[in-house]
Amino acid sequence: MTQALIVIDVQRGFCPGGNLAVPGGDEVVAPVNALMARFDHVVLTQDWHPAGHSSFASAHPGRAPYEVIEMPYGPQVLWPDHCVQGTPDAAFHPGLDTDRARAVIRKGMNPALDSYSAFFENDHETPTGLEGYLRTLGVAHVTLVGLALDFCVAWSARDAARLGFGVEVREELCRAIDLDGSLAAARDAMAGDGVVLR
Ligand code: VGL
Ligand code: ZN
């Protein structure tokens, strides 16, 4: 069975010192590098927002980071400005072994629409192209690691399961933001969609 490792958003912005730092985010870098050698294919995702992106609280006068607003495609958490295209905050963590990756999926580039998942933007219908990429390579099973477990990792894992891939999330190679119980909710939702949490 052809297997792919999908490394979600291991970027400076989500590591200590970054604009949307996830506690312990940098701790996953070395073990993720070590895991890459065990896979037929390695894919990296990169949160890659234009300045002024609609997921930034700063784009909504009177709003603060971590408030939730209603967007045409559903509820949206407002984030601090983060991972702006071409800035150091958007770069991969300098310790990540990017040489092993055949593909990098950039997401969150549409100014009006956020994109947590590696497969679909947050409207759940605009594809990133990753599904076709994996299918044409004959990939049947994906393992996900990275940042953040309760947002981009969970949304990617759930989409992969719904698309019919076998899906495993290696929790010790992920770190979470954990906003108002978001980690427990994400775990339940992943398990409900058939994602294996290990
Ligand atoms: C992420 C919030 C905003 C993530 C990306 O990588 O989990 N979270 N953008
Ligand atoms: Zn983002």
| N-to-C CA distance | 19 Å
Contiguous runs where pLDDT drops below 50 for at least 5 residues: none
What summary fits the major beta sheet? 6 strands, parallel
**What proportion of the residues form beta strands (DSSP E)?**
15-25%
Rg over CA atoms: 16 Å
For the largest beta sheet, what order do the strands appear in spatially? 5-2-1-6-7-8
Bound molecule kinds, no repeats: pyrazine-2-carboxylic acid, zinc ion
- Counted by DSSP, the helix tally is 4
Outline type: globular
Q: Briefly note the structural class of the backbone.
A: alpha/beta
Strand elements, count: 8
**From the structure provided, what is the oligomeric state, counting identical versus distinct chains?**
single chain
Tell me the series of helices and strands, N- to C-terminal: EHEEEEHEHEHE
- Give the mean pLDDT: 97
Helix content: 10-25%
Keywords:
20% helix, 6-stranded parallel β-sheet, 198 residues, globular, 4 helices, binds pyrazine-2-carboxylic acid, alpha/beta, 8 strands
Structure description:
Helix content is 20%, strand content 24%. It has 198 residues and is of the alpha/beta class. The protein has a six-stranded parallel β-sheet with strand order 5-2-1-6-7-8. A two-stranded antiparallel sheet has the order 3-4. β1, α1 (29-36) and β2 form a beta-alpha-beta unit. α3 (149-162) runs parallel beside α4 (182-192). The mean pLDDT is 97. Zinc ion binds at residues 47, 49, 55, 79, 82-83, 108. Pyrazine-2-carboxylic acid (VGL) binds next to α3.
